[in-house]
Specification:
This protein is mainly α. The protein is built from 39 helices and seven strands.
Length: 927
């Protein structure tokens, strides 16, 4: 009998993952959207290679429907929409087509239109002249509306909330969904910020007292610091006293220094008090935004996310002053002495760019360095330069340029930026169009390569000139030279706080608490959404479409979407992850020693003794400097301290099974490099599984003693040992970061679901009398339960997901009955407080098989849900508890029961409850 070919654990995980993805793709193809705003195209490229739909690649942006007319738009410059055609339905088989765009601006040619399909062809780029078919968005519409069914049954209520009335089109609802997307991403990031700030207190279970949850912009700093002198009720005074106690404790920990916040070193108590006042306002604004996006409080004007900061009350004036201070402080640090600080580069550019006035070069360089307008061109200047040097300028990669490479590349990029920004705008627009028409990454690479070939002949001599100036003597001389230019040249370019609306300033303030990747993700998403809203408003106001677009009071801000889009570009360019404050170094050293295995109760004196903090002399601070450079200044270390606990992270790292799982997600080539760098005597011929196993063993056994003799200024063998120690610490922090970050990302999906549940409950209350007297906090199942009951009661439910799918509705009803109000309330609170991340160490050691972040998340979550409180009797056992403890893995039916509050939206419910659907996308990996 032949032996079975037994797969190794990692190979088995990969095979299982592949099977899940294939199954998920099959299921996803049959999924129904909540509102069909944009039709899907016929697949004309292999699924494995396809990066965007053929419709978008051919230039069609959207098909908008208003009453009996369709408006077809194409992509214009940037994200702008060009109104191409008006299509007026005469009867089932006849449509009148009117071209709205001029021949010069037109990007698509409309073909046949019938009840089911619309055909068109691109006039430029992809598939030029080839007909592409897309579905008619009015097909399968309701009897009384030309717009496809709203599956949730909330379209009218959303339109009334945002515009004060209902509309027979799909234009308003698409604009609304862009606003709702803004609130979703803010819900995620503000929830994470609140958790991180609470976590910085280091006091165990955040949910016992949610310090940030009680902060809001309702109280002035004077009332906050002295509630007894106010007219507030005794209960509110007590809550403020608790918050003040926690606030002072947070200041005392110095952990706000991780966010770059630092109390002034001065004996002037006024400066110290002003700092505390600013911090209070920052935290209060965060708390207020959380209330706005995590609860449906639309009936209270002070919870209007987009307008509360402009309230005339004194407390809001104080908050605005803090926002002004933060933005002006950042602009001042950028603007102060800009010309003198960049005089070497400016001098070189003035010498080379003979066709430009010196003043103009300075203004353009400010635009390039500060406002970063190159990032708004629609393509990557950096990628163009890299293509040029890879293909034609290999000599510029020589080691002789290592010390000046950053300066050299910056100057090269600036020349390319000026070419597209000033000299050849048309070429830049043509490049954007070509990239938009590309379907796959290989096509984009080819387009960049072709453009680089054109640029090389034009810029070769300039690049050579830059390289010739890249030596220490020339740079030193230029640095000594005086510049005869007044900083006033930039007065018209420089920005200050008064240039931004307060909403934009609030977003800037949030970036204080985020790392670089989070800042980029948040602001890029916001820019995209505001840009879309701006385009919708432009189309709605156009003479061709001309539909009402008067926003209700709480959403007037979106009339300024164009301005906010521009402001958010500025915010994105000036925001960055801040360096930890110097005054927090002792706290940080304690966290470093703890995460490396020393008990977190270590005294300040012992820390100073180990790191020789109080000693002076040459060469004695090698360990201190090594830890500073390789741990404290690591964004991954900072992330771990924000979201986890240093002591618990060290304990989790001892779980080889978990570490092997995380290492399994790191690409093989990266594992090879880690293995070679970390292992003293590496066997490069060993299998990848063996290499991962050895790295997991090293992480498990990592100890402070491994690094205590490292010297920062080392030579020979000592330098080899130092480089190996750097690699080991880097690997350790990376693996723990990937574990925590991915669990935070999983939790984010459920945060969005909670946010949507709160919002939708408020909307359904307006149309379902049975919900009018209900409180969601009493039982989070009530919405799904009521909508299911209405389906059974003479089919009165407005929710088409449940009404049209009886089989799935019955499944949801089973899951609702398998849960209870206490269980789902605890589940909601665990999501809101990222309890899985906090309690990871307590339960992850019990899990039998670690094969996905979904399985880790739900096992730990279910253990948290079934955890006995001190006053809970043993007989009050939660359903599924025995299976959970017996199988040492999450229980699928338990997941569905916990997610039953989301059952009213069946696609979301399935995606959050079924691992194969949840895990469609790759998790975060180390690149």
């Amino acid at each position: 009998m032949a032996k079975k070919n037994k797969m190794k654990p990692r190979e088995l995980r990969e095979a299982q993952k592949k099977a899940r993805q294939l199954k998920a793709a099959e299921i996803n193809n049959n999924a129904a959207p909540a509102i069909a705003a944009m039709p899907a195209a016929e697949v004309i490229a292999p699924a494995a290679e396809k990066k965007k739909s053929s419709v978008k690649a051919a230039g069609m942006k959207s098909i908008l429907v208003s009453e009996n007319k369709m408006y077809i738009t194409s992509f214009g410059k940037g994200n702008s929409a060009v109104l191409e055609y008006e299509v007026d339905k005469v009867d089932n088989d006849n449509y009148n087509k009117t071209q709205l765009s001029s021949k010069d601006n037109s990007n698509i040619e409309l073909g046949d239109v019938d009840e089911v399909n619309i055909t068109f062809s691109s006039k430029h780029g992809f598939g030029s002249g080839v007909e592409i078919s897309t579905s008619n968005p009015t097909h399968r519409s309701g009897e009384s509306s030309p717009v496809r069914w709203d599956m949730l049954g909330l379209k009218s209520e959303l339109e009334k909330r945002f515009f004060g009335k209902t509309f027979d089109d799909n234009i308003h609802i698409q604009l609304i969904y862009n606003i709702l997307d803004i609130e979703k991403i803010l819900a995620v990031y503000v929830t994470n910020i609140v958790y991180a700030l609470n976590n910085m207190l280091g006091e165990g279970d955040e949910s016992n007292y949610d310090f940030m949850g009680y902060l809001s912009t309702f109280n002035t700093y004077k009332v906050f610091t002295n509630p007894n002198g106010s007219t507030l009720s005794d209960d509110k005074k007590e809550n403020i006293r608790k918050s003040l106690s926690k606030f002072n404790a947070l200041l005392k920990t110095k952990r706000l220094g991780y966010f770059g916040l630092e109390e002034p070193k001065t004996k002037d108590t006024r400066a110290s008090e002003a700092y505390k006042k600013r911090v209070y306002h920052m935290l209060a604004i965060v708390g207020q935004i959380r209330q706005c996006v995590f609860h449906d409080l639309s009936e209270h004007s002070e919870y209007d996310l987009y307008s509360f900061i402009d309230n005339s009350k004194k407390v809001y004036r104080e908050c605005r002053e803090t926002l002004d201070y933060l933005v002006d402080e950042r602009f001042d640090s950028i603007n102060k002495g800009f010309i003198q600080g960049n005089k070497v580069n400016i001098s070189l550019l003035i010498d080379m760019m003979k066709g430009y006035e010196a003043d103009d070069i300075i203004r353009l360089y400010y635009d390039f360095i500060v406002l970063k307008s190159q990032k708004n061109l629609g393509f990557s200047i950096k990628k163009l330069r890299e293509k040029m040097l890879d293909e034609y300028g290999f000599r510029f990669k020589d080691k002789q340029y290592d010390s000046v490479r950053s300066k050299m590349y910056k100057l090269m990029d600036f020349l390319l930026f000026c070419n597209y920004y000033r000299n050849d705008v048309v070429a830049g627009e043509a490049l954007v169009r070509k990239l938009r028409f590309s379907m796959i990454d290989d096509e984009k690479e080819g387009i960049y390569a072709d453009e680089a070939a054109k640029l090389w002949g034009k810029f070769r001599n300039d690049f050579e000139n830059i390289a010739d100036h890249m030596n220490g003597d020339v740079i030193k001389e230029l640095g000594k030279a005086d510049m005869d230019f007044d900083e006033k040249i930039l007065d018209s370019e420089k920005k200050n706080a008064s240039d931004l609306l307060y909403f934009s300033k609030m977003i800037y303030m949030l970036t204080y608490f985020l790392d670089g990747k989070e800042i980029n993700d948040l602001i890029t998403t916001l820019i995209s959404k505001f840009d879309n809203i701006k385009e919708f408003l432009k189309i709605m106001k156009s003479s061709a479409v001309d539909v009402e677009c008067e926003l209700t009071a709480g959403y007037k801000l979106f009339n300024d979407s164009q301005r906010i889009t521009n402001e958010l570009f500025i915010v994105k360019n000036i925001a960055s992850m801040r360096k930890p404050a110097a005054s927090a170094k002792l706290t940080m050293f304690r966290d470093v020693l703890t995460i490396l295995g020393i008990d977190d109760k270590i005294t300040d004196d012992r820390i100073s003794e180990i790191l020789k903090l109080k000693e002076k002399g040459k060469g004695i601070h090698g360990l201190r400097n090594f830890i500073t450079n390789n741990v404290i200044e690591s964004s991954r270390f900072v992330y771990l301290i924000k979201y986890a606990n240093a002591q618990k992270i060290r304990e989790v790292a001892k779980n080889e099974k978990v570490v092997m799982f995380v290492l399994g997600g790191i690409p093989d080539t990266q594992i090879e490099r880690y293995y070679k760098s970390c292992v003293e005597f590496p066997d490069m011929n060993s299998s990848l599984e063996a290499k991962r196993s050895e790295l997991a063993r090293m992480i498990k056994n990592i100890s402070f003693d491994d690094f205590k003799n490292v010297k920062q200024q080392a030579k020979g063998r000592e330098n080899v040992a130092k480089e190996r120690a750097k690699a080991v610490i880097g690997l350790y922090l990376t693996v723990m970061y990937l574990l925590v970050k991915n669990l935070v990302n999983v939790n984010a999906r459920y945060v969005i679901a909670i946010h949507c549940l709160e919002r939708d409950f408020g909307l359904y209350k307006e149309i379902i009398p049975e919900l009018a007297s209900k409180n969601l906090k009493n039982d989070y199942r009530i919405l799904s339960q009521t909508l299911c009951e209405l389906c059974d009661d003479r089919d009165k439910s407005p929710n088409l997901f449940l009404k049209k799918n009886k089989r799935l509705r019955k499944c949801v009803e089973v899951d609702i009955n398998n849960a209870d109000s206490s269980m789902t309330r605890k589940y909601r609170n665990c999501i809101a407080h990222l309890t899985v991340v906090r309690e990871l160490k307590e339960y992850i050691g019990d899990i039998r098989t670690v094969d996905s972040y979904f399985s880790i998340y739900h096992y730990v979550m279910q253990r948290c849900i079934t955890k006995r409180e001190n006053d809970t009797k043993q007989e009050d056992k939660i359903k599924y508890e025995d299976d959970l403890l017996k199988n040492h893995g999450y229980t699928k039916d338990f997941v569905k029961a916990l997610n039953s509050p989301f059952g009213y939206n069946i696609p979301r419910f399935k995606n959050l409850s079924i691992e194969q659907l949840f895990d469609r996308n790759e998790y975060l990996t180390e690149k």
